[in-house]
Predict the 3D structure of the following.
Amino acid sequence: MKTVAISVDQLRRPQPGGIGTYVRGLLTGMQEHHGEWHVQEVGPPAIGTSRWGTVAEKLRGRYYAERWATSDVGVSALATVIHATTFTGPFGSPRPGLVRSVTLHDFVWRDQPESTTARGREFHESRFQLIRQRDDIRIFVTTPATAERVAAEGIDPSRIFEITLGLDRAREFSGDAASRLLAAHGITGPFTLCPGTIEPRKNLPRLIEAHRAARHRELGPLVFVGPQGWGGVTLEGAISLGPVDRGVLTGLLARAAVVAYVPLAEGWGLPPLEALNVGTRVVASSTVPSVQGRSDVVTVEALSVENIAEGLQRAIALPDDEATRSNRRSSVASLTWSSMAEQHIAGWQ
């Protein structure tokens, strides 16, 4: 049996986000290969949610980020594969017989530098240069365009492997809990849902303005669900439910009249696919790779309030009968975490 060490530092963050979903999905997918692979989860230990626990987690996170730039602290000596799910690492020295890989989720720190902090930009660029110079590190990417950009940096294409993210397949979701949460905020009819961390990159002020301009009764109020991120984004005139667990989120996605996701930049974009997975109508910006070329998603220009408003109007006019919802669900049925895990395993061979 082979041992693969998979970094889980993203799951220790207050807002794991889409990358956290990827990490959980990879661990889930690898469970189907437990007879051939032993998975070691490496990273800062979870301490808790108390005030001091949160501070300790941040300190430990920084410790691992610094140590993993040059070492494999915490990794079993039995590991034949070390996979860094983020740029944090581990990136210890090469050694015979060891396969080392990393997932590059996006180039957002370059494409939308204002959407992250100066410290974040510096960290990502320095780590990318480290990876670029290390011929022993294989690079997983989620889109052909990203693969081309990586190769354009002078990286041998033989080091680059494309993967496709999966979706949670559990059909059980907390519909009742979602309904109670909505009712507590005065929502009993249709609503437009925007899932994700509240941060500048998500283009939320334009979405709020566009929803207001759309003036369609069936769109209902605009509702945000997700944790508050950095940047001090305000949601004037909208309703925020805050962070919820996966079951409640799925229930909200299924209940929404339309799911709107219009970020300025995106690495892949799971939320639109998660909405399709429960049959819901979707509006997404053309910058989202996961919806490009899809006929069942209304795509809009992220910088145009007018175009986003028109997209919301087009989406709410789409059929929403059970047959159409079933077609939406079927359109993403092939996206599984098991398949994604197999793509990783193929890249490690």
